[in-house]
């Protein structure tokens, strides 16, 4: 199914309706890999699709032109959800040169061992394709060292690859065709799970993009922004700056209910202090959904009982994920119950320290079952540090 974005510029990607796991990220709405075909004096394909959706992309291209006529293939990003079909399309588009960043060339050579005709570009470079120009801005680490964006000034069109994406499979292509709340929820989830560690690089990229006249952003995943361009750019600024709300996320797992009691006592304190919160029991909540909540939360509570001198495996997996994504400017409190060893709280705090969280109070732990007195003490300590 081909969609014309602008006159002579088409979406020719693939829709991954069944995708539910994107290296650990729960993609409950599936995804798309967006490839774009620009028909001008030169014919340009911008990015490709995951290898198993190649036939869909090829069929889409064939509805518009003979793929042998492609002059350039822009590879904005080496990751295989966008380059996976490059070897196959190159077998047909034999004359096509590959336009990519310096790291893109290295990455594509390392992935595919092909000596293609590379046209390496850097920030400020521009290639005329007839009535339009392709301008390039390198955006290292948004999402890989090779990442770059392509801008077409005559169309006010930005093709930023991973940036501004969302994992949504849909027969609709544009933001005004889909519920805004769903779109923003998925854009936030995408940012939290993919882009969060690269806030500084995002801010640098936004500075450059700020100088461009953009009325459409066509990312490599999900829906194309044409109605809400300023809103998604503003959100990226906020997320990349680690701006948060007066909100807490209480993440925990429990063996016999003691750590859960503490989690719910923390919740009581938050209510008393008019701080909004989400209870996220790791038995029921996916870590990628928890990170999405943390994207806008100033306070993070993590609780685990001690199991075999450590934390519960669910908590361990969450901490590894959290440490990798490393949100900044958060205040975090560790808690948990124990029988004899009591190591869990220290393990959680070690991760908080490695990430650089503000830790206002030493981790709170109680032996076996916290009864009224201990829970009162727990609440007082949390209340004191939230109000101080
Ligand atoms: Fe959608 Fe970093 O690949």
Fold topology:
Blueprint: E1 3-6, E2 9-11, E3 14-16, E4 21-22, E5 25-26, E6 31-33, E7 36-39, E8 43-46, H1 54-62, E9 72-75, H2 80-83, H3 86-92, E10 97-100, H4 102-112, E11 118-120, E12 126-128, E13 133-138, E14 148-152, E15 157-159, H5 180-195, H6 199-209, E16 216-217, H7 229-240, E17 245-252, H8 258-272, E18 276-281, H9 287-294, E19 297-303, H10 313-325, E20 331-338, H11 344-355, E21 364-367, H12 372-387
Parallel strand pairs: 8-9, 9-10, 10-11, 15-16, 17-18, 17-19, 19-20, 20-21
Antiparallel strand pairs: 1-2, 2-7, 3-6, 4-5, 7-8, 12-13, 13-14, 14-15
Helix pairs in contact: 5-9, 6-7, 8-12, 10-11
This protein binds MU-OXO-diiron (FEO).
Question: Can you summarize this structure?
Answer:
The chain is 35% helix and 23% strand. With 388 residues, the protein is α/β, with parallel strands linked by helices. The relative contact order is 0.09.
Describe this structure in words.
The protein is α/β, with parallel strands linked by helices. The chain folds into two domains: 3-240, Ribonuclease Z/Hydroxyacylglutathione hydrolase-like (Metallo-beta-lactamase, Chain A, 4-Layer Sandwich); 245-387, Rossmann fold. The chain has helices spanning 54-62, 80-83, 86-92, 102-112, 180-195, 199-209, 229-240, 258-272, 287-294, 313-325, 344-355, 372-387, and strands at residues 3-6, 9-11, 14-16, 21-22, 25-26, 31-33, 36-39, 43-46, 72-75, 97-100, 118-120, 126-128, 133-138, 148-152, 157-159, 216-217, 245-252, 276-281, 297-303, 331-338, 364-367. The strands form five sheets. It has a seven-stranded mixed beta sheet with strand order 1-2-7-8-9-10-11. It has a five-stranded mixed beta sheet with strand order 12-13-14-15-16, with no helix packed on it. Strands 18-17-19-20-21 form a five-stranded parallel beta sheet, sandwiched between helices. Helix 8 (258-272) packs across helix 12 (372-387). The radius of gyration is 24 Å and the shape is elongated. MU-OXO-diiron (FEO) binds at residues 77, 79, 81-82, 143-144, 162, 220-221.
């Amino acid at each position: 199914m081909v969609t014309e974005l602008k006159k002579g510029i088409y979406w020719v990607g693939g829709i991954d309706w069944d995708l539910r796991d994107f290296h650990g990220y729960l993609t409950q709405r599936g995804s798309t890999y967006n490839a774009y075909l620009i028909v001008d004096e030169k014919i340009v394909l911008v990015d490709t699709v995951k290898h198993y959706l190649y036939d869909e992309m090829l069929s889409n291209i064939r509805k518009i032109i003979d793929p042998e006529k492609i002059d350039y293939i822009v590879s904005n990003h080496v990751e295989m959800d966008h380059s996976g079909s490059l070897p196959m399309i190159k077998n047909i588009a034999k004359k096509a040169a590959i336009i990519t960043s310096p790291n893109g060339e290295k990455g594509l050579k390392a992935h595919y061992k092909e000596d293609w005709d590379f046209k390496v570009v850097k920030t400020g470079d521009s290639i005329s394709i007839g009535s339009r120009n392709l301008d390039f801005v390198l955006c290292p680490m948004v999402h890989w060292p090779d990442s770059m964006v392509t801008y077409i000034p005559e169309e006010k069109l930005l093709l930023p690859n991973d940036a501004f994406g969302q994992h949504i499979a849909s027969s609709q292509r544009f933001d005004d065709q889909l519920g805004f709340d769903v779109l923003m929820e998925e854009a936030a989830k995408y940012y939290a799970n993919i882009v969060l560690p690269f806030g500084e690089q995002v801010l640098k990229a936004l500075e450059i993009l700020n100088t461009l006249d953009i009325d459409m952003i066509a990312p490599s995943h999900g829906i194309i922004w044409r109605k809400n361009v300023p809103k998604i750019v503003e959100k990226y600024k906020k997320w990349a700056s680690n701006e948060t709300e007066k909100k807490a996320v209480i993440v925990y797992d429990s063996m016999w209910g003691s750590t859960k009691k503490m989690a719910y006592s923390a919740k009581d304190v938050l209510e008393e202090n008019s701080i909004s919160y989400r209870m996220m029991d790791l038995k029921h909540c996916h870590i990628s959904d928890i990170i999405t909540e943390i994207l806008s939360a100033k306070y993070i509570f993590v609780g685990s009982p001690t199991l075999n001198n450590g934390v519960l495996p669910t908590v361990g997996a969450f901490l590894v994920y959290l440490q990798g994504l490393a949100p900044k400017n958060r205040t975090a409190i560790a808690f948990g119950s124990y029988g004899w060893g009591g190591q869990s709280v220290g393990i959680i705090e070690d991760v908080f320290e490695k990430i650089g969280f503000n830790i206002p109070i030493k981790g709170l732990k109680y032996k076996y079952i916290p009864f009224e007195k201990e829970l009162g003490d727990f609440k007082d300590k949390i209340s004191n540090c939230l109000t101080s």
